[in-house]
Amino acid sequence: MANILVLSEVSLDKDLSKPSIQVLKTARALADSTSSSLITLVIGGSLDSNKLKDQTGFCGVDKLIIASDTSLEQFNAEIYKKIFLKVIKDLNPDYIFGVNSTITGDLFPAASFHTNGGLAMDCTDVTLDGSTLNITKTMYSNKVISKLKFSSEQKPKLATFRPNTLMPKDVQAKTPEVITETVSIDQGSLKIKIKEVKKSESKEVSLTEAAIIISGGRAMGSWDNYKILFETADVIGAAVGASRAAVDSGYAPHKMQVGQTGKTVSPQLYIACGISGAIQHFAGMGSSKVIVAINKDPNAPIFKKCDYGIVDDLFKVLPILKEEFAKLLGKELVSK
């Protein structure tokens, strides 16, 4: 029987992250098609084993491995890598999956190197044909959709998946076996030490995990004008982004930037407000399921790439959209 190992990640609230749930359910479907066992590893500090057992069980996990220790409260690539490689050595899995993130960006290349396994990062789809793993990913700023096939003899096969690109169906819940992985780290031998982590006080929805994103471009004119984006986002539960032009103009911080030199996102709905649609911006949001563009320039390139377009002043359109969204969702708007 083959084993599929998923490195799952948790949110700040120690809940299983939404992208990890997407990967787990996708892996469960693959496991069912090949009579494989689904195992997941969760690494972190102060983890609630009962809560994770319920959450991973809902994703159809057969075995849950938890590595929890105070030394794991903050991500330290050196420590996490030792735990990850030990679990891989113990299990000898055929497939290793994870969310494309800063964590897997460190751990998966290391695992590929130490196991001589094949690796594909930032994938958007996956299928299994017997023991042959087929993955899909975009390349060259979303201009190319690449179909890659792992050699059936290669083991393990590693892949990470872009958040919100996998849309698995619900799976049959299970009661996973819970295993506690002993964490034994000699702190004195560590080359990497985390001295301080500064967390944002913002409670905004994460761009990379958001199902809906509303972004503003240079046409926003100032940071103050982003208020209408945040107000609309509050109504529909969206994250707020910005184009590089807006960031370079000083209208928004770099953490909000979507594009080739910013964050790559794949929401169900992307609303581009006053964004011309440069190829660099499209590289970061081109895999969005539905793209809506609002721009008063009818010749803006974004209209060649969007699903729906509104040719008008965004400052006239957004207040109307906000009100209509509120009516549709049964929410009461509060004047600020």
Task: Jot down its keywords.
single chain; 336 residues; alpha/beta; Rossmann fold; seven-stranded parallel β-sheet; five-stranded parallel β-sheet; 8 helices; 28% helix; globular
Instruction: Determine the structural class based on helices, strands and strand pairing.
Output: alpha/beta
Question: What would you call the quaternary organization?
Answer: single chain
H and E string = EHEHEHEHEEEEEEEHEHEHEEH
The structural domain count equals 2
Per the principal axes of the C-alpha atoms, what is the gross shape?
globular
Short summary of the structure?
The protein is an alpha/beta fold. It has helices at 18-34, 49-58, 77-91, 102-115, 227-236, 244-248, 279-285, 314-329; strands spanning 3-8, 37-44, 63-68, 95-99, 118-123, 125-129, 132-139, 144-149, 157-161, 177-180, 212-216, 239-242, 269-273, 290-294, 308-310.
Characterise the protein shown here:
The protein has helices spanning 18-34, 49-58, 77-91, 102-115, 227-236, 244-248, 279-285, 314-329, and strands spanning 3-8, 37-44, 63-68, 95-99, 118-123, 125-129, 132-139, 144-149, 157-161, 177-180, 212-216, 239-242, 269-273, 290-294, 308-310. The chain has two domains: 3-189, Rossmann fold, CATH 3.40.50; 212-329, 3-Layer(aba) Sandwich (Rossmann fold), CATH 3.40.50.1220. The chain is 28% helix and 24% strand. Strands 5-9-4-1-2-3-10 form a seven-stranded parallel beta sheet, with helices on both faces. A five-stranded parallel beta sheet has the order 12-11-13-14-15. It has 336 residues and is an alpha/beta fold. It is globular.
